[in-house]
Amino acid sequence: MSAKSPILAGAAALAAFxxxxxxxxxAWRETLRENAFDLLLRADEAIWPARRPDALIVVVDIDRxxxxxxxxxxxxxxxxxxxxxxxxxxKPALVAVDILFADPDSRSPAALARxxxxxxxxxxxxxxxxxxxxxxxxxxxxxxRAPSVLGFVLDPENATAAPGAAQILTRGRPSLPQIWRSPxxxxxxxxxxxxxxxxxxxxxxxxxxxxxxxVPLLVAPADTILSGFAxxxxxxxKGASGYLLGSDPQTLTVGDxxxxxxxxxxLRLIPGRxxxxxxxxxxxxxxxxxxxxxxxxxxxxxxxxxxxELGGLRRASGDALxxxxxxxxRAIAQILGRQNPQSAPGTRxxxxxxxxxxxxxxxVVGALLPPAxxxxxxxxxxxxxxxxxxxxxxxxxxxxDPLTPSFAALIVFFASSITTYAQTRRREELxxxxxEQHLAPAVVRRMIDEPQLVKLGGERRxxxxxxxxxxxxxxxxxxxDPEDLVGVLDEYFEGAANIIIEHGGxxxxxxxxxxxxxxxxxxxxxxxxGKAVRAAIALRAWSEDYRKLPRxxxxxxxxxxxxxxxxxxxxxxxxxxxxxxxTAHGDAVNAAARLEAANKRxxxxxxxxxxxxxxxxxxxxxxxxxxxxxxREDAFDVFEPWPEGTTPAxxxxxxKAHALAATDPQAARRxxxxxxxxxxxxxxxxxxxxxxx
Length: 693
Fold this sequence. Notes:
This protein is of the alpha/beta class.
């Protein structure tokens, strides 16, 4: 290797990175940039929290509890009218309904009468509709009781204009070449649109990764500029008659609020836990007047739903499933806080230049400096790049991507540095060979030929053994495709091993579908019994989630049964010279294996022996009773960590039933049956009740 090799390697890595960046699909590149912006915005919000909006924002949530109490979705318009009227009666500053009413009411008595009259041709039946309850009339009347905003969605197929557009004035020549366009909209029927004080776009754009990071401030259906739902809510709440678009710089003004307006007319959301800090009330509590009206008075109230039945859950940056009403609430808070971060001017030129500059720094540092010092210098360069991005965001609200240049710098640095390191190692090898003559070659050769020289001797120590098994694995192997089975097992073992290792355990061996693990070996581990039990709890939760994935579900992958016990064992290397296995032998290991098998007759997922349970907090466990093993005459108590979601009252009843089992089996059986009915997904109470019959 020549002295120029590190520079050439770094230059090749930089060229490859630039080529990949150039050829990368636009959607991928945008996703990387947006993820970098997410990091910037999260950190910026943590360091300099935004000022609180000048109005209280409250979400009235049609949640699952509400649907259970009021009735399944879709609701009659009359029910929605009652909800809007209950909110309006508290005198809020605004009622914004994040629900699309795309068609006239078809379920109320008046609507049915109109339809029947049209079908039969009997005008007297059609005329009867004027005296019958009409869902649209009732909802329109409720909307008129307070300032209100409804929503429409962009429709790519129907060229239908939205009614009730607010006035938009311009000053200068604002340009919106990337505004969200559509041939038309799906909008509420005229009676509702007329009753509302405003109407805005509910549509939310998603990036290639499916995350919603932007909310439209303005949209352009049928070449008409209309406002987004959040912006329209702010306009109505502020009592403004319209909007003002200005240029140089391009801004959007509504009332006393002025926002930067990018070419796509979007509001960039600040990622985080959506809904955090915003009061959220269950709609059923509002309907049944269990909410103090003062909580809604003078507030901007959004009505929406977190229930999956309504189809309003979206993926947002920072939240896996976020109700669209919470996204709109966050957008309103940002508008009121005058926050709309956007890409810095000239980023198309500045970002490639920054990428090239950081790459050149990586080449120079990797080629000229030792690895440790070079890595420190590169860390400083990356920190400097991120600090510059933070500064632009804090001072001007500009977003500049520091992530891609940082990746480029580090990749180029490692390519150059590794080449430099290889050259150094080659020189060291040459030096070592020169000095090897001062040592007996037979000594080195013997160490290679006789690995028992470094064999770990056996020792007796306290360990906690954890054994797992997959329920129904044998029958699954008979019906599964070999490639599918091996692929699913590989994923399963990878996840299970990661959990055990994260809790301080050691994978002893994998046998078939079973994992054997040891805690407190080969080195001491504090609270090894507790960590083993916590590993079992985490493994129980993870394995249940894993079973629901498409591939394991298709194979009928069974639940994971786990046995845990603590005791003395002999540990050390066992095997032949070419194959050594560090393992353990003793009662604790045998007991863990049998405890795992005992889950089958107990109905439990985790069976913890008395040795491990005695070293943990008793409140962590529920008793499973006493069991015996073949070859052992004594019975001993076993336990299971309480399943997730059990309430204190449920646990008290379980303990009571367990205590009664010895003195009043029938009373205990009845309690266990009630507990089984309360939690049908938990087999243990049912098994205990069956055993007491």
